[in-house]
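Re: the request from the purification team.
They wanted to know what the chain is likely to look like in 3D before they choose a buffer screen. I agreed to run a prediction and write the result into the notebook, where they can find it.
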Amino acid sequence: MKISIPFYVKLSFILIILIAITFVVYIAQAIIIPLLMAVLFAILLNPVVVFFKTRLKFPHVIASMTAVIIFVILILGIFTFISFQISNMTNDFDKIQENIQIHFRNMQHYVKQNFNISNREQQEYIQSATKDTMQKGKEILGTTLLSFTDTLLNLTLIPIYIFLLLLYRNHFMLFFIKIFKSENHMQVHEIINQIKISVKSYIIGLILEMIAVAVLTGVGFMIIGVQYAILLGIITGILNLIPYVGILFAGLLSIVASLSGSPDLSIIFGVIMVNVIVQLIDNNIFMPMIVNSKVQINALVSIVGIIIGGTLIGISGMFLAIPVIAILKVIFDRIEPLEPWGYLFGDDIPKTYQWHKINLPHFDFGDDEQT
C-alpha cells in the first residue's frame, strides 16, 4: 500500500534537512572546505594521472604523487613570482606614500574651497571617523593572524587530500556504487561520471577566464604606462576567481600601485577604465562563452548560492558555490523525485549564437512563444 504524504509535510522535511545541512557545514567548515577543494583539484588532475599511467607506464602511486607534485610546484611558482614582484614594489612604498599625500592635500584644498571646511576641521572629522576602527585594531589583527594560520593549515592539507583521493579513486567510486541497490548501479556510475565532467569543465573554464583577464589587464596597464603591469594583471586574474569581492580588491590594489610611478590623476583614471573595460568583456563574453557554457546554471541561483556560500564560509564558500550547485544539479536531474529542483537550477536560455561563424553571447530574454 502506497502512503501519500501531504505537501506541507514534505516541505517541512525539506526545510529541516536544509537547516541541518547548513548547520553542519557552518560548524565543520574547517574540515569540509579543504576536502571539497581537494575533490575539485583531484578531478582536474585525474587526466594527468591517467596520462602518466597509460603513456609513461607509471605505477598508480607514482603517477598520483607526480601529478600532485607538479600541481604544487606550479602553484608555488606562481606565488613565488608574485611575492618577488611585490617585494620589489615595496621598495617604491615611500614614493607611493608621497603621491597619496599629494592627492590627499589636493582633496583637502578642494573641500576647503568648495565647502568652507578648514583643514583642521577635516582632520578632526577623519580622526573621529577612524577612532572606533583604531580601537578594534587589535581584534582585527588577531582575527587576521588566526585566518592566516588556518589558510596555511589548509594549504598543507589540500595536497595530501588530493593525493589520497587520486590514490583511492576507484575505491571511493565502488563505495558510492555499493551504497545503492544493484539495479541503480548504472545510474550512480553515470551520475559520478557526469559530475567529473561538469566540475572538470568548469575549473578549466575558470582557468581560461583567469588567463584571459590577466592578459587583457596586463596589456591595458602596459599601454597606459602603469609600473608592474604584468604583476597587476596576474593578481587581477587570480582575484577575479573570487566573485564580486576579488575584482574590487584588485582594482584598489592597482590604483595604489599606479602611484609608484606618477601622482598624475590620468594614470588613476586609466587604471579604472582598464578594469571597467576588462570586466565588461569578461562578464559579457568570457563568462557566457567560457565558464557559463560549462555548467547550465541560471544567474539567479548562481548569485544566491555565492551569497549563501560567502555568508556561511567566506571567500572559500564563494569560490565553491558554483561547483557545488553544479554537482547538485547533476544529481537532481537524474533522480526522478528531484527533477523539478534540477530544472529550477538550470538555464534553458541559449548562451551564444553564431554571427559570421563567430560565437557571440546571447542576450534575448524575451517571453517564449510557447503556451
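For the purification team: Residues 140-148, 363-371 have pLDDT under 50 and may be disordered.
Please add any questions underneath this entry.
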